[in-house]
Amino acid sequence: MRASNPPAGPGRPLPSLARKLSAVWMRHFTVYRRNFFTNSFFIVVEPIIFITAVGWGLASSISSMGGLDYLSFIAPGQVMVAAVFSAAFDMSYGTYFRMEMDHNYDSMLVTPLGVTDIFWGELLYHGTKGALFSTGVLAVFALWGLVHSPWALLVPLVGFLTALTFGSLGLFAVRLVKDISQFNFFISGVISPLTLFSGTLFPMDKLPKAVAFCAYWLPLFHPVHLTRMLTTGRFEADWPLSLAYTLIMPWVLGFFAARAMRPKLIQ
Amino acid sequence: MPANLIEAKNLSKAYGDFKAVDGVDFAVRRGECFGFLGPNGAGKSTLMKMIYCFSPRSAGELTVLGLNPDRQAAALKNRLGVVAQSDNLDDEISVRENLEIYSGYFGLPKKQAAQKIEELLHFMSLTEKAAARIRELSGGLKRRLVIARALLNDPELLILDEPTTGLDPQVRHLIWVKLRELKKRGVTLLLTTHYMEEAQQLCDRLLVMDKGRVLAQGKPRDLMARHLPPYVMELPASRRLAATPPGVKVDRYQDRVFLYAKSPAQLHRLAGKLKGHFSIRPVGLEDLFLKLTGRDLHESE
Question: Mutating which of B32, B82, B105 best tests the A interface, going by the most A Cβ atoms within 10 A?
């Protein structure tokens, strides 16, 4: 047995973009496979606990919200919240650890992978997780009778795209923070408010006009709005806008977020 | 195919006002082992990073394998092997899985990768550890794995940043054997080290640098001949020397005195006059290194 091949020389082909992205995806899948269950369990369970609590304590006093029974109104938001938190946490704290403590990206960057390959691969991995988690939460809600339309089969796709969006926001946070404690601003100051004010718990018309206008264009409103239309089958007039926003936003944010990481790694 | 794998002319790297690398010229020939020596903070690692596309140059010219590291990074990195200072392996998974994942970054087809991985496990004597998780490995085993990992793409140029720092002598010697074997197969080696014995054992040519600038470069033997007489005797500084005979050079460093001469006989005569036992030895790279970089303490990086 010999490892004694002469050097390969300039003839060695470069991996395709798809091959590079799938290699990064496989890295995350393989490395995090072992503790996947413990890390994801509460992401899926939390929205379920939340809905249970609201169902027992609150839903009976609210006859209807936005023309739906209250639990059916808030369920779609909680489905997306699972995708939001998994991506936002893992691509802020997680990415920071991979970069600053474990130096994982340094070992990847001395291969044909570039900075954008690495972070697009990572985004797609978290997109996959987002699809999986939103599906898990949706499945439980379906058993509870909170899903009313076969359009809900498209919800995993929305979960995937929403995770890309929030993973990208996480990367921007990594670019901006000076030390790890500053991620508190990102989670408590950006992500948590978004999960409360994006039409998740009450319709936007309950908000002051200016706040509602802002929230309408922030990254979570349209995915939640679209998810609600899919789980109820009741499409509103602005569905094409919500669909377009949900489809396009993650790729725009991801494009800039992956590029923003370059100066963190190449100096 | 050009004879020089790396060519650098007036290469510079500045971070703000600080010049980490300042007008460096050198060339690495195909098939040789080239070493960067220098105190901490000399600019060795920055120079390495510029070569493996981690650090765009501020000024000057740099060609690696005929490519421009700033503009043809992917094509260049596809043909490099890099062993960085930190091990940066994926701790949670096994030795083999680490290699499998890494082979994916080069786009190696599965079957070809599996075969290459078996070869490299064997080559670095890791076959028995293939299923072990990284966190169960000793520092020496990790280092061997990092070297195996850097060979997955059959690199033409293997870059090693302090490959044996912190390892025990057995592992160090094993790694030297393997690096020499790679050189025999035509792999060009570029390394930094703080171990003069390592430089002596491996390097055909050396570049000694400090504060971002080149102090000397050439073959170890030529460098020593150019800068130092061939023999040296060390004394405690407390020994008083009546007079230094002609042809003997004196150098003081902290509590030691170094006497250099053309022949051991001159030093033996001197030792005879002084009572006690003194070692008289040929000068080594360590003497050269200290002479060139100054016998004072440097700020660490």
Answer: B105
